[in-house]
Amino acid sequence: MQEKGLLIVLSGPSGVGKGTVRKEIFSQPDTSFEYSVSATTRKPREGEVDGVDYFFKTREAFEEMIENDQLLEYAEFVGNYYGTPVDYVRKTLDEGKDVFLEIEVQGAGQVRKKFPEGLFIFLAPPSLSELENRITIRGTETAELIQCRMKAARDELEMMELYDYVVENDQVELACERVKSIVVAEHCRRERVQYRYKKMLEVD
Amino acid sequence: MQEKGLLIVLSGPSGVGKGTVRKEIFSQPDTSFEYSVSATTRKPREGEVDGVDYFFKTREAFEEMIENDQLLEYAEFVGNYYGTPVDYVRKTLDEGKDVFLEIEVQGAGQVRKKFPEGLFIFLAPPSLSELENRITIRGTETAELIQCRMKAARDELEMMELYDYVVENDQVELACERVKSIVVAEHCRRERVQYRYKKMLEVD
């Protein structure tokens, strides 16, 4: 029996550097997971290949996918749809390969509902580590600015709730290493490994 | 406030290569955790330093440690006691450093009771991955031998129950990398990280 792959979801506040971390991860030759190709209604740019860069769809085809629940998550930006086709994800997981999604926090919420067993990684802004200093240096900031920062920090904290892991994006290389370590560790979890042995021994 | 370190417990069936993996881990310059020095009643060998190789104790002093519950775990081999002083472990964890223990499965059970929050890693023999083949190649083995192997596999499986992670020792370098990845991942767990932020925001 083929063991299923892991669904890895990297998300976090906008501007945190998700795309940069994803590109760095996939530029490394030892990365063994598959990047999930998105579907879009945007026109292909020169050199873009259907099924590699995106699955290019008409608006009608995309809306049909929405209606038929064929998207793990989707959103509309500047008049174009972007989404994650569930078929590709399921097929790749069934082949025993780990699938990597890099999506917005709204999308991550949608994915969690359909794949509660996914591995949800919150990419945290590097500034969070400096938050304590920034907040507690009193007298140098107006009370209003401190309040504003506290509110932003609390909002980010609430977004974290949904996630299994928090990776600080202090340095892109370090953030990548952490993401890859998390995937290695998850593959070693006893529940995951033991199930395989148990099944094997039951069969015999 | 200093965040506490992780207690990392590497154990597994005897002969699996725990010592080899531990030595490899501590030979790597980027290893950031502390090796827990054992106490023993064995006489120091030439070159061995008290507090570095072992804490050398008299039999009376060791038995007093047992009575005073000052050992995380202990056992007697060939007329000498060996054990893990709890003071060193607590002190090092309190300093925010990760502590690494390499111990026998019996000792791991004792540690789990005192440190349920520890990170328990089961080092599995490389043969486990070949088990399926070995068991299912029929006709080439006596029924008795197959039964014997099934029993051994089931016993190992039961020993795994106590652990959070299972690391296969197929290659020492790979096993080390997995152990270190598990520690990196555990430091990124949301419960661990979020607590820190929450505490920080409450204080202010």
Question: Would you kindly provide a brief summary of this structure?
Answer:
The structure is a homodimer of 204-residue chains. Chain A has 204 residues and is α/β, with parallel strands linked by helices.
Distance between the amino and carboxyl termini of chain A: 14 Å
Q: What is the H/E string of chain A?
A: EHEEEHEEHEHEHHEHH
Class per helix and strand makeup of chain A = alpha/beta
Strand order across the largest sheet of chain A: 2-7-1-8-9
* Annotated CATH homologous superfamily of the largest domain in chain A: P-loop containing nucleotide triphosphate hydrolases
% residues in beta strands of chain A: 15-25%
Task: Outline the structure in words.
Two copies of one chain form a homodimer. By secondary structure, chain A is an alpha/beta fold. Chain A folds into two domains: 140 residues, 3-Layer(aba) Sandwich (Rossmann fold), CATH 3.40.50; 61 residues, Guanylate Kinase phosphate binding domain (2-Layer Sandwich), CATH 3.30.63. Chain A has eight helices and nine strands. In chain A, the strands form two sheets. Chain A has a five-stranded parallel β-sheet, sandwiched between helices. In chain A, helix 1 crosses helix 7. The two termini of chain A are 14 Å apart. The interface between A and B is large, with 38 and 37 residues. Chains A, B: Essential for recycling GMP and indirectly, cGMP. Chains A, B: Its EC number is 2.7.4.8. Chains A, B: Belongs to the guanylate kinase family.
